[in-house]
Amino acid sequence: MARSSRRAQRKKKSDLLMLIGACVATIGILAGAGYFYLTREMGIDKTTLCPANGPTGHVVLLVDQTDPFNFVQKRAFEVELQDVVLRRTPKGSLLSVYVLGEDFTSNAEPLVELCNPGSGEDKNAMTSNLIRLRNQYEERFVHPLLQQSEKLVAATPAKKSPIFEMLQLVGINAFRKHSIQGERRLIVVSDMLHNTAEFSMYKGWPDFEVFAASAYGQKAQADLSGVQVELDYLINDPKIQSRRNLSFWEAYFNKAHARVVSVRPFEG
């Protein structure tokens, strides 16, 4: 009787060990499957956070630093930057941030360039690690971009504002370099008053066709094929920033094979 009882206990212990082993194996399989689905769904470049097969769209933010932002303009820009990062850069799209400064040669490369990896809102908790996706979105995409806010606003006025040259560089180093086939959008935060030794809008300017035919006008023309342009005007000199100024830029972008789709003055 005792021997039979011991055999029953050993069998029970063996069954328990087998059950534990089966549980461990199941957990391992589920963890492996979870990792597989996570890595497959993430499928992104570790540095840029872009999809493995390339970005699905391209948003370029160009911020004019040649004039200091006043208090209201700074607040308006902070809201604008949040809007661009959180709502106007779709999942999978590349966001490139450029600075327009006095020396365009030192601003040829983007200040920061990242794809929106998605926050996980469109994923299923059964097949996705939603916490990890959300953390990646906030810590590696949102925060690094929003932290650029102070760097993007000027502290001191500049003597030159080479807008044409920066638009050319954006066309080359952003849109042409990446050659993304999806939506291409350029958001310019500037007073749109070009000012260099070759050409200054503070001294008045001819009709666009006259400018475009000039030696400098031909040299200054950008190629922004297929780009939708949004102009956010910093109102620094209302007398000069007239409808004529806007018409000039609309013609310039049309010649660059782009299209102005939005114009709005910044508060302040």
Please provide a written account of the structure:
This protein is α/β, with parallel strands linked by helices. The protein folds into two domains: about 1-40; about 55-265, von Willebrand factor, type A domain (Rossmann fold). The chain has eight helices and six strands; from the N terminus they run H-E-H-E-E-H-H-H-E-H-H-E-H-E. It has helices at about 1-40, 70-85, 130-145, 150, 165-180, 210-215, 215-220, 245-255, and strands spanning about 55-65, 95-100, 110-115, 185-190, 230-235, 260-265. It has a six-stranded mixed sheet, with helices on both faces. Helix 2 runs antiparallel to helix 3 (about 130-145). It is globular.
Uncertain stretches:
22-41
Mean pLDDT: 86
Structural class: alpha/beta
**Tally of separate helices:** 8
Helix content: 40-55%
Which key terms come to mind for this protein?
single chain; alpha/beta; Rossmann fold; 2 domains; 6-stranded mixed beta sheet; 44% helix
Write the SSE topology:
Blueprint: H1 2-42, E1 57-64, H2 71-86, E2 93-100, E3 112-115, H3 130-146, H4 149-152, H5 163-178, E4 183-190, H6 208-213, H7 215-220, E5 228-233, H8 243-255, E6 259-265
Parallel strand pairs: 1-2, 1-4, 4-5, 5-6
Antiparallel strand pairs: 2-3
Helix pairs in contact: 2-3
Provide a compact summary of the structure:
By secondary structure, the protein is of the alpha/beta class. It contains eight helices and six strands; from the N terminus they run αβαββαααβααβαβ. Helices cover 44% and strands 15% of the residues.
